[in-house]
Amino acid sequence: MNIKILTGFDHVLLEVGIALLPLLGFFLFFQFFVLRLPMAQFFNILKGLVPTFLGLALFLQGVKVGFFPVGTEMGGILAGMGHNWLLIPIGFVLGFVATFAEPAVRILNIEVEKASSGSIPQRIMLYALSIGVALSIALSMTRILLGVPLWYFIIPGYLLALLLIRFSSKTFTAIAFDSGGVATGPMTVTFIMAISVGAAATTEGRNPLLDGFGMIALVALAPIISVLILGILYRRSQGGSS
């Protein structure tokens, strides 16, 4: 692969600037007409926008020249091997590691531990989410190799989630559905999705659009089920209290 780090970086800067401008406009409007924060705090927030802008731009550039090409190449190489079933355990490991390193997941776990006064430790939540996503990635790789339609997993999966709500606690039900969105963060979407698309493009008889995509839907579903199961275990350990 011939990768040039700064290729197209000017377009990325423009896109990030356009994305942040409406947020800046809303903030300025509320600052002058509603919030009226002290000027020192106001200027601190404005200064914080600079590393935010640069961080987003550098991240998106890294995705463009690094994560996507490498992920697609990895998926193609793994699917093209004689033992393409290795995609399943490798997908499991990558799903676990990506979720374990996901910043949004860490923040959710910290907030859950704080709101529950420590009764739901962030480490338990982190392992529950990581295992759930890892299983969903392994399932996605299985779906690509076997050519199974996505709805064979989505419909039974959400039916199972609705059933688990009946037995889980109200607290974990609320956390579970937020976890589904948080788990589909930049680490999973940018890297592992590229691997699945590359694998589908290389696997004979598979369509990258039909078989490569859809993985994120499974990733969003898996944490819901894993956290609901965790809620059932917590409920039983506490004698059935909600």
Q: In brief, what are we looking at here?
A:
The protein is mainly α and 242 residues long. The protein has helices spanning 9-35, 39-80, 87-100, 103-115, 122-146, 151-167, 170-183, 186-202, 208-212, 215-237. Helix 3 runs antiparallel to helix 8 (186-202) and helix 6 (151-167) runs parallel beside helix 10 (215-237).
Measured between the Cα atoms of the first and last residue, the distance is: 54 Å
Share of residues in strands: under 5%
Order of helices and strands: HHHHHHHHHH
Range of helix content: over 70%
Number of strands: 0
Structural class: mainly alpha
- Main sheet record: none
Stretches with pLDDT under 50, minimum 5 residues: none
Total DSSP helices: 10
What's the Cα radius of gyration?
A: 21 Å
Total domain modules = 2
- What overall form do the CA principal axes indicate? flat
InterPro entries: UmpAB
Keywords: Membrane, Transmembrane, Transmembrane helix
Organism: Desulfurivibrio alkaliphilus
Protein name: DUF1538 domain-containing protein
